[in-house]
Amino acid sequence: MLTTGLSITGAAVQGRWPPPSALLDLDFRQDRYVQAGTGRRFDELLAYSGSGPRTFTGPAGACLWAAHNLVLNSETPATQTITVDTAAGYTVAMQGPGSVALSGAAAGTAAEGSPAVVTAGSAALTLTVSGTVTRMWAYRSDLGGMADNPDNLLGAGFETYVPSAASPVFKARRNAYENGAPAGIKIESGTAENLLLHTLAPAANWASPNSTLAEVPGGFVRITSNGTGNYPRAERADVGGGAGTYTAQVEVRAGNSGGFVFRASGTGFSGGGDSVAYRFDFSTGTFSKLAAAPALYPPVAALVSPGVYRLAMTFTAATVTSFSMYPAWNDSTPGVYADFRRPQLEPGHTPTSFIPTAGSTAARPGETLALRASALPASMPDAVSLALDGRLHFAGTGAAAAARFFDWQAGAGAFLRAELNTGGGATGQIRVVSGQSGSASTASGPAAAYAPGLDVPVSFAARHQAAVLELVDQGEAAPGTPAPSGLPDLAAAGIGLAPVFNGHLGRFRIWNRDLGSPGAGRMPA
């Protein structure tokens, strides 16, 4: 009989020995977490902290809200007022024979099996409980809706229910996708702010010189030239950005023009001029520069889902006053069109997940993820091996730690960490650093192992015993220099995962043994 795979014996004959079981295997792409061979729940092994709802990309490219509950004490609900965003959509649901009346920001009534779906007209939504209500939950449900709670234990009918106590609950962005493939858990450690207004409804709220704007399927807005001028566009002329570095991004879909132009205008652009503008060509996947000022780094395009690209450019300016998008440049042909959605202009060197806005700018705080100390050995083993893979956005900023993948630290002097170096001639170099008693050993991978960009795949492994520290990256093994004096005692300390990061963690594994150089070399994807 023909088979489609190899037996373990066959794999061994070909030199592909299966890796030994890890002490901890955090497979974020599969949302599967294993400790010493036993499956565990996410919250048993990991501690997540992040306030406020946040977005990520789902399987079909939809922009989803991570699971959350804005209601306090959801299992013993009482009348309360929750904070909401004006012009945003919300759903209020409940269980029990009673009901929940909505007032303030929106009016409506929720009953069991019949949630209230509303759009907030102000910032305070009052939920008045009548009769017996055994569970109550409220969540943001515009854009592509809210993702189901990945930890739902109640079964059918409670997919969107997230239990809460004295505070609202916000879940991590698990089961994220990029270009239709599982990407893992979305982590953005830094704060971000979208300076563009009315990104929730651009068709009704953006200016449209020489063009018309209309909502079309997929959450897009279509810019169509009306033939009255050479620069048909969608535009916000009230940005109000001061001196600094900015990143503009937008998701686009080809129309009949073959390209898409995005432009930021103001004063004091690095390189001269009063604007920065680039045209993306859908057929070649390349950019052409249209304005005097260059971008700080080459603009980038990443495929989000079939036919949909995320475009991003970074620049510096003294002021930013407007942001515009064009289906065609210097062309008055009527009927020329292209589609866009989720425009964003934010301070910083890399684009982050979409922050929808209405009549004011909106910000998103950072988030943290840590492997609990209780999940790790009570005493430090004689050796450890680790492997990590994921995808990240990064720019060639010259920073020695443009990203930090993990940080296992027990006090200021004892640590083991991995970071991405873009300084000192490196463009994207993995470094693993071990420190104790004031001395450190650093294992450095190839200086140009990774090129700056969006969703850059990264995969590496490291092993550490008393006198050996080694990094394996891009098929190359690099020893720690100087050689470590010992393995730092990190017992009773948790591991910070992606403490400086913008992207997706795919998988993190740790062994309480030395895999050896050949074994570590087989770990990176």
Give the helices and strands, then pairings.
Layout: H1 8-13, E1 24-27, E2 32-35, E3 38-40, H2 42-45, E4 46-50, E5 55-57, E6 63-65, E7 68-69, E8 80-83, E9 89-95, E10 99-104, E11 108-111, E12 116-119, E13 124-130, E14 135-140, E15 169-170, E16 173-178, E17 181-188, E18 192-194, H3 202-205, E19 211-216, E20 220-225, E21 234-236, E22 244-253, E23 259-267, E24 275-281, E25 286-289, E26 300-305, E27 308-317, E28 319-326, E29 337-347, E30 362-364, E31 367-371, E32 384-394, E33 403-409, E34 415-421, E35 429-436, E36 439-444, E37 453-465, E38 468-473, E39 476-479, E40 495-500, E41 502-511, H4 516-521
Antiparallel strand pairs: 1-2, 1-41, 2-3, 4-31, 5-6, 7-15, 8-13, 9-12, 9-14, 10-11, 10-13, 16-17, 17-41, 18-30, 19-20, 20-29, 21-28, 22-27, 22-29, 23-24, 23-28, 24-25, 26-27, 31-40, 32-37, 32-41, 33-34, 33-40, 34-35, 35-36, 37-38, 38-39
Report on this model:
With 525 residues, this protein is mainly beta. It folds into 3 domains: 19-63 and 173-191 and 365-525, Jelly Rolls; 67-171, no CATH class; 194-364, Jelly Rolls (Sandwich), CATH 2.60.120. It is 4% helix and 47% strand. The protein is built from 4 helices and 41 strands. Strands 1, 2, 3, 16, 17, 32, 37, 38, 39 and 41 form a 10-stranded antiparallel β-sheet that branches. A hairpin with a 2-residue loop joins strand 37 and strand 38 (468-473). Mean pLDDT is 94; it is low at 1-15.
Instruction: Work out the number of β strands.
Output: 41
**CATH top level label of the largest domain:** Mainly Beta
> What's the gyration radius in Å?
25 Å
Low-confidence stretches: 1-15
| Mean of all residue-level pLDDT scores | 94
The biggest sheet, with number of strands, parallel, antiparallel or mixed sense and barrel status, is: 10 strands, antiparallel
Q: Structural class from helices and strands?
A: mainly beta
**CATH architectural label of the largest domain:** Sandwich
Q: State the oligomer.
A: single chain
Give the end-to-end Cα distance, rounded to a whole number of Å.
Answer: 30 Å
CATH topology of the largest domain: Jelly Rolls
Total helices: the number is 4
Based on CA inertia axes, which overall geometry fits? globular
Strand content: over 45%
Tally of discrete structural domains: 3
| Helical percentage | under 10%
